[in-house]
Structures are given as structure tokens and as C-alpha cells.
Design a protein that fits this description.
Distance between the termini of chain B: 9 Å
Mean pLDDT of chain A: 82
Helix content of chain A: 40-55%
Largest interface: A-B, 33 and 42 residues
Shape of chain B: globular
Low-confidence stretches of chain A: 46-51
Number of helices of chain A: 4
Strand content of chain B: over 45%
Radius of gyration of chain B: 14 Å
Low-confidence stretches of chain B: none
Shape of chain A: extended
Oligomer: heterodimer
Number of strands of chain B: 10
Largest sheet of chain A: 2 strands, antiparallel
Strand content of chain A: 5-15%
Chain lengths: 131, 126
């Protein structure tokens, strides 16, 4: 299911930042809206600004392009994707992650479970609201 | 070996929680967390502030849906955890402000809920 989108108009932006953001979006093959949304999300979520963010985004795009081929060989397995290729795979995520971190060091590496569709995970339990 | 943990009475009604040591994969930083046992959660969750503090690496992105509301996309991170005597690398969604122990982690252990005694017992597969 696609997420809803909203329009945002911002006054007072520095022209050089806007120019750089547009160039960065074009370089990554994405839209300015996606680039700004991702940056805002990372800031609001308080996630670390890791230097390998571009790497994992590229790996995600590579995976999306090659998913059909990967399904033939790696269906329901976890694969580690780095620099446009599968570097390792395993049915057990923990075992794969151990090998990948000892090989590449401690950094973000895209390790999806190869499946036909993107999974939707559920966190079902409701909580009582505070009085 | 069996370990027992009292329910957390700050929840109403008291809730089963599991003490878990969460570390980054290289074990250079760790924190002891109390994870709410939630069999309704497909995957375990870590608070985003903890993910940031431990600099947990990203491994994928997932769509998640709560009880209500639209699905949203969030990053999946990896952490090394200690539960009882077991150490393992697990995937966690970076979301919210409490640690949720979902069925992905619960499937690794044998857990027994004793409601009247407000006690959670766990043991690992031999």
C-alpha cells in the first residue's frame, strides 16, 4: 500500500542549499521530495547520520532492479548486497550478519530477505492511553 | 537453565518484561533494557534514541503497521543482544520509545507466563 503524500511549501530557504539538494537528488536518481523526506525522517527519528547512507540507498535500488533474478537463486534467504553485488547469503540472518561484519567491518549493509513482495510487519497490541 | 523475571508493575495491568543487554555488533557500547513481551508484534522494536546512542547499523527498510493508522516505512537495524545465556545478532525496527520483544525474538526461547504469580520464565532450547 502506498503511503499518503502531502505538499510542503517552505519560504526562506538558502538558494545554494536548494541548488545542492536538487543536484544531490538528481545524482541519486531520486526526487527532491524523497531526498528532503528522508533527511527530515532521519532527523526526526534521531537516527545517526552515518557516512554510508548513500551506500545502503544504492544497494536498495540495486535490489529493487534485480529482485526477479535474485528470487530464482535466493528465495526466502537473506542476502548481503554491497557495491552492486550479492556478497553473501544465508537462511539465518544472525549467521549472515556475523560473517558480513567480520568481513566488511561495523557499518550499514543492506541485508534483505529475498521475497516476491515487500513485507508488511505488524505491531498489533494496543496500549491504554494515560489518563 | 530456567530464568524467572517478575512482571513490570508500572504497566496496568502488570506486564511481562525481559531484561536484555543490547549492544552494537562490535560490543563497544551496550545498555541493559527491559523489553515488553508482545506476542502481537511480528518483529522486535528498539527506541530510536537507543538506536542512535549505540550507532546501530542499518540492514534494511520495512513497512510497519500498528493497531491503527497507515503503514509507515522505518529502518531496520541490527544489534547484538544477550538474553539469559544466549548471545545473538537480531534485527530491530527503530521505532517509538519502548523496547518491544516480538515473536522473532520469542521464537528463539521457551517462555512461560504465570499470570497469577506475575512471573515470566524463560529457558533456551538445548
Amino acid at each position: 500500500m502506498a503511503q499518503r503524500s502531502a505538499a510542503l511549501f517552505i519560504r526562506g530557504m538558502r538558494p545554494d542549499i536548494v541548488r545542492e539538494a536538487k543536484a544531490a537528488a538528481a545524482k541519486r536518481g531520486t526526487t527532491l521530495a524523497k531526498l528532503v523526506t528522508d533527511s527530515l525522517e532521519r532527523t526526526l527519528d534521531g537516527e545517526p547520520e552515518s557516512g554510508d547512507f548513500d551506500g545502503i540507498e544504492q544497494a536498495m535500488r540495486w535490489y529493487a532492479r534485480h529482485r526477479t533474478n535474485l528470487l530464482r537463486r535466493y528465495k526466502d534467504k537473506y542476502v548481503a548486497i554491497d557495491r552492486g553485488r550479492v556478497i553473501d547469503s544465508d537462511a539465518d540472518f544472525g549467521a549472515l550478519a556475523e560473517r558480513v561484519f567480520s568481513r566488511l567491518g561495523f557499518r550499514s549493509v543492506f541485508m534483505p530477505r529475498v521475497s516476491r513482495t515487500s513485507s508488511l510487519v505488524r505491531v498489533r497490541s494496543p496500549r491504554k492511553a494515560a489518563p | 537453565m530456567k530464568s524467572q523475571f517478575a512482571y513490570d508493575t508500572t504497566y496496568d495491568p502488570p506486564a511481562p518484561v525481559l531484561p536484555i543487554l543490547v549492544a552494537n555488533p562490535t560490543r563497544t557500547a551496550s545498555i541493559l533494557m527491559s523489553g515488553l513481551v508482545d506476542t502481537g508484534a511480528d518483529i522486535s522494536l528498539l527506541p530510536t534514541t537507543l538506536v542512535r546512542r549505540l550507532l546501530l547499523p542499518r540492514v534494511s527498510r520495512s513497512r510497519v503497521r500498528g493497531v491503527t493508522g497507515e503503514p509507515r516505512e522505518v529502518w531496520v537495524h541490527v544489534a547484538r543482544i544477550n538474553v539469559g545465556k544466549s548471545t545473538m545478532l537480531m534485527q530491530f525496527l527503530s521505532l517509538g520509545s519502548e523496547m518491544i520483544v516480538g515473536r522473532d525474538l520469542l521464537s528463539q526461547i521457551i517462555a512461560q507466563l504465570d499470570g497469577p504469580a506475575s512471573r515470566l520464565s524463560i529457558r533456551h532450547r538445548s
